[in-house]
């Protein structure tokens, strides 16, 4: 190849290289200004704070959309890049945060990893007050003994709560009880009165239903069986009441003993419904709304007086002792 041809190729190559470099500089510069603009405060002179809530388990995309909708960030893509750049995605907390439009994207991203005003706490249906005390202690640092001083069994409504992180034991209990009063509505209480049941009796029955019925479809039938047995003067014979009376099992690290012995069923306790007719003295756990509704809506025409649980937790109902024994033979032995 001649020298002049080589020189021409080199000049063409250099031209293309220069064009590419200019293009990259333009694109890079454009992206830089796009990124910088996207990180700026929405309104740097607005100091008024907003309470921004991150739901428990909420994903980053949803959080970013909510920040944008509430005019706390300028650009969703840029904020996503900021979170990724800072490595904060796994550090974002659930809770509520005091943010304002004068904060830039970096400040907002960092704020979501600390300084939550409230803490999400979930109380599970069918847990007793000691178990709830453990959850409160783990999440809010309130000593279990302090919580138990004020806790009333069955009145700590199971739900997911946003609780102030500096709340006292009494304040937490009041939040749970207030929610119970709201969810256990006047309409439900009126239905209870029509069945000649007090609110306390409904909560006690509902706590039994909560512990006995593993599946939603069984709740109504269990409630009807309990009411039928009470109306017939029969003992309730509920395993969960004995488990409640037995209390904490160190070997199982559980408040609910898995396998009851014949000796357990003979224990002397007002909660032992194998030995005592009628309802136990009070609830044995905190029932959820579904179990409360199962009690007040129980069908009075349900013919069943017995049920037995199979290995999957499904219940099988019987009208007579003979049918019940047959179910035991089929599903237990």
UniProtKB/TrEMBL annotation:
Classification via InterPro entries: MLTG-like
What Gene3D superfamilies has UniProt attached to this entry?
Classic Zinc Finger, Endolytic murein transglycosylase
UniProt GO MF annotations: lytic endotransglycosylase activity
Q: What does this protein do?
A: Functions as a peptidoglycan terminase that cleaves nascent peptidoglycan strands endolytically to terminate their elongation.
The family line of this record is: Belongs to the transglycosylase MltG family.
Identify the species of origin.
Candidatus Roizmanbacteria bacterium RIFCSPHIGHO2_01_FULL_39_8
Q: What EC class is this?
A: lyase
The way this protein sits in the membrane is described as:
Single-pass membrane protein
Keyword Chaperone tagged: no
Q: Which reaction does it catalyse?
A: a peptidoglycan chain = a peptidoglycan chain with N-acetyl-1,6-anhydromuramyl-[peptide] at the reducing end + a peptidoglycan chain with N-acetylglucosamine at the non-reducing end
Per the record, its GO cellular-component terms are: plasma membrane
Q: Does the keyword Cell membrane apply?
A: yes
Site Important for catalytic activity: give positions.
212
- What this protein is called in its record is Endolytic murein transglycosylase
EC number of the protein? 4.2.2.29
List UniProt keywords, sorted A-Z. Answer: Cell membrane, Cell wall biogenesis/degradation, Lyase, Membrane, Transmembrane, Transmembrane helix
Q: Which superkingdom, per the lineage?
A: Bacteria
GO biological process assignments: cell wall organization; peptidoglycan biosynthetic process
Name of the gene encoding the protein in the UniProt record: mltG
| HAMAP family (UniProt xref) | MltG
Transmembrane stretches, start-end: 17-35
Enumerate the subcellular locations listed in this protein's record, separating them with semicolons: Cell membrane
């Amino acid at each position: 190849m001649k020298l002049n041809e080589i020189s021409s190729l080199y000049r063409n190559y250099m031209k293309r290289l220069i064009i590419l470099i200019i293009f990259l500089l333009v694109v890079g510069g454009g992206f830089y200004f796009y990124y910088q603009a996207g990180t700026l405060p929405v309104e740097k002179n607005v100091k008024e704070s907003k309470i921004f809530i991150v739901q428990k388990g909420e994903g980053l995309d949803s959080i970013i959309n909510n920040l944008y909708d509430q005019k706390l960030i300028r650009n969703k893509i840029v904020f996503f890049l900021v979170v990724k750049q800072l490595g904060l995605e796994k550090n974002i907390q659930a809770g509520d945060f005091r943010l304002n439009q004068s904060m830039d994207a970096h400040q907002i991203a960092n704020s979501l990893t600390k300084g939550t005003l409230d803490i999400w706490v979930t109380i599970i249906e069918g847990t007793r007050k000691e178990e709830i005390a453990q959850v409160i202690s783990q999440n809010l640092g309130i000593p279990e003994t302090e919580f138990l001083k004020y806790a009333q069994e069955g009145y700590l409504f199971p739900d997911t709560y946003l609780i102030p992180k500096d709340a006292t034991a009494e304040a937490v209990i009041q939040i749970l009880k207030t929610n119970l009063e709201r969810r256990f509505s006047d309409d439900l209480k009126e239905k209870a009165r029509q069945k000649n049941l007090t609110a306390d009796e409904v909560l006690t029955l509902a706590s039994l239903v909560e512990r006995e019925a593993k599946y939603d479809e069984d709740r109504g039938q269990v409630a009807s069986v309990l009411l039928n047995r009470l109306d017939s003067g029969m003992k309730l014979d509920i395993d969960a009441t004995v488990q409640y009376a037995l209390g904490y099992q160190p070997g199982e690290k559980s408040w609910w003993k898995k396998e009851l012995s014949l000796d357990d069923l003979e224990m002397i306790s007002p909660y032992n419904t194998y030995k005592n007719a009628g309802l136990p003295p009070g609830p044995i756990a905190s029932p959820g709304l579904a179990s409360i509704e199962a009690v007040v809506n129980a069908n009075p025409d349900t013919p069943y007086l017995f049920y037995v649980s199979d290995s999957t937790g499904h219940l099988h109902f019987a009208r007579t002792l003979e049918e019940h024994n047959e179910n035991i033979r089929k599903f237990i032995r």
